[in-house]
Design brief:
Layout lengths: L5 E5 L3 E7 L2 E9 L3 H14 L5 E8 L5 E5 L9 H11 L4 E8 L6 H18 L3 E5 L1 E9 L3 H10 L3 E6 L3 E9 L3 H9 L4 E5 L2
Antiparallel strand pairs: 1-7, 2-3, 3-6, 4-5, 4-6, 8-10, 8-11, 9-10
């Protein structure tokens, strides 16, 4: 089985604290599936920590390596977002975000001090949350006649597909994530059934 059939991520949120010369850095790591989900979580953290001077972050989503972002949120360029993203990447994880909230302690830490603080806070948060392996899935929309519901559900179960949504009427529609390394088997099995239409969705 090739490496690209799986990815690693975190299952649960975690947080950790790092202190340096009076400044406190609270790192919050949490799983996400989209940039919208991240923005909502960031707003909640900003409400929870209104007195913090910075809310720096980085996230990575998906397995193609193209969907990521980092922000120094007013810290000197490259001292916060990049070190946070660096820790995410050194763990080889995706579909997660880390926000580090800083409370100012009255002493300037300088560029090396800031890089170390954001890096260490992130590393501590990622150390205490279990890293899990998940299979890469391709999303499909499956339409079928209600009469063959059992056969369709059996295939979905047998190949460990994830059901994202299902509309069960006279004509049914299921949106499911099919494991990348089993999609040919699933498509062949569904193709053997009558009145099933399968469409790949982005």
């Amino acid at each position: 089985m090739s490496e690209v059939d799986f990815y690693t991520t975190i299952e649960k949120s975690s947080n950790a604290e790092f202190k340096d010369r009076g400044s406190k850095f609270f790192a919050f790591a949490f799983p996400i599936k989209s940039a919208e989900e991240f923005r909502a979580a960031l707003q909640v953290l900003k409400k929870d920590h209104p007195k913090a001077v910075h809310h720096c972050f980085a996230y990575r989503i998906g397995t193609d390596g193209n969907n990521f972002r980092s922000s120094d949120d007013g810290e000197p360029s490259g001292t916060a977002g990049k070190p946070i993203l660096g820790q995410i990447d050194s763990k080889g994880v995706t579909d997660l975000a880390v926000v580090v909230v800083r409370y100012w302690g009255g002493t300037m830490l300088g560029v090396p001090g800031l890089i170390n603080a954001y890096k260490t806070a992130t590393a501590l948060a990622l150390q205490i949350t279990p890293i899990i392996e998940k299979q890469i899935e391709m999303n499909y929309s499956i339409e079928f006649d209600y009469t063959i519901m059992n056969e369709v559900m059996m295939i979905i179960k047998q190949f460990n597909c994830t059901v994202h949504s299902n509309e069960m009427q006279l004509f049914c529609n299921i949106k499911a994530g099919v494991p990348k390394n089993r999609q040919d088997d699933v498509l062949n099995r569904l193709g053997d059934l009558r009145n099933v239409s399968v469409e790949k969705i982005a």
